[in-house]
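dumping these here so i dont lose them again. two proteins, back to back, each one seq then structure tokens. dont judge the mess
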Amino acid sequence: MPGLVVYTVFLMVPIVMSVAISLTDWTGMSKLSEASFVGLKNYRNLFSDSILRITIHNTFVYGVIVMLFVPVIGFILAYIIETFTRRKSLWRTVAYLPAMIPLIVTVFLWKWIYNPQYGLLNQFLKLIGLGKYTTGWITNSSTALYAVTFTSIWKAIPGVFILYLAGLQSVPKEMEEAAVLDGAGRMQVIRYVVLPSLRRVTTIIYVLQFIDVFRVFDLVYAMTNGGPGYYTTEMILTYGYKTTFTNSNAGYGMSITTVLICFVSLVSVLQLRLASKRYDD
């Protein structure tokens, strides 16, 4: 019951309020009672918003890269540490370290790495003879989105690593040993024994990563604030936030977040339903 109360008050009530506000022209700077009901006007304006289209494109590029690399790297890291290392506790701690670093420290760390004058990345490129590729990674509009995405991948891998690590410990060792005795190589054991045993974990990981892609806000806001240039790294959620609180257009900003919540919820439910059917079959 306490958990249900907290969930209702701090999650469900704000969602319902945001849906109601999205049907008004409330600016967020006046009393809500002074707002006028505009129906679906804010939602119709979404289709003609050129900036929103840019943020959708940015979020899509960011999401594809994150969902391609984070689960794969997380699995490889977990499998190597669980299978080949001796001091497992030490390597688990090292692998999980990025998740323990506070976000603000992560931002300062990677902004220093990406610094065009004294940043570690540019210094490394100069050291190996690739100085012509040095740039201001988060101030260059052609590289900023990818720089932010790489930082996000670095921050997200430990969480996936822990989930896969727990899943690997539940894989029956007898099955792996039997496969080896039947002549299966390492890659065949991974493909036909390990990965099928981790299907449920993998489904959960992809659903969580999908949700996190559309929840990305603080990292982008702190590193680039949506820039440089013309909304180069602006994401859907950061744009909704700025529309609501910076541009004083709460009604329209809430319509953006409402559509986002509905879309993410629908796709997540479909992912879980399809995965459940595969398991039942």
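---- next one ----
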Amino acid sequence: MKTITVKDLINRFSLEVLAGEEHLDRKITTNRAHRPGLEFVGYFDFFPTELVQVLGVKELTFLKRLSDEEQKLRIGNIVNYHPPCFIITAQQEPLRYLMEYCIQEGIPLLRTDDDPTSEFIRKMDAYLLKTLAPEMAIHGVCVNVSGIGVLLRGKSGIGKSETAHTLIRRGHRLVADDIVTLKKLGPQTLLGTHDNSTRELLALRSIGLVNVVRLYGREAFQDQSRIVLDIELTKWEEDSLNNELELEPQFTDYMGVKIPHIEIQLQPGRDVAGLIEAAANNWYLQREGYSAAEEFSKRLGIDHE
């Protein structure tokens, strides 16, 4: 399981430490935050104790209206569950008992700048989702073609990087070469990115490493892209290409996310980059509900199954 520490969160969002300075190594393992509401009125049946607890204006205003004894009781009840940390938003002043309990229990108490609570939570959830997402590394190339992420796979020397170079020259973007890091952001969402060491670099046989940003400008590269196509480059085999009007969908499974899979065979003279562009554009059309095979069948007056 991937984790980050409270200190990582502090550094990322420039948070102020109000208490618990000696316990900033506490682990955060979940990819979202929680605003305690029902918990302050004594309902703890579904309290997500493993989440970062965020206290906004609503929560602190409610607590301030309580008597000292009620504040002490209700804050103590939540602190006793030992969440990773508490974060007070919008430069609000911490309550006395919140400070005391966090110091006593060794729980970091942090404070944000003047960002609204909802905006801060949105930013933090996005950061936690990407940082704590399950991930894997594969050998290949990731490019953004017409706005969508495409994985190029195949045996070493098959021409993945050279194909990516052609696509870049046609106005598309490199995401990663050689090692592609895949992050699962949801049941149907796979993000492709680089491992930092090869950022902006493309390895071309007989040429060596090239920096695509230096060669072709900033538009030739982007840090990440959602993966929607998995394309495998293979050697040409006679009489092995499927010439059906519409191919049976094939998929590659990455950490439980199924990505449409296409095989493209290489042969001198074939416009492989053009075929990849066609596959990307065809994916867009299929998402909109269009099928060229169905249209062709209708023109012929036959049923398409």
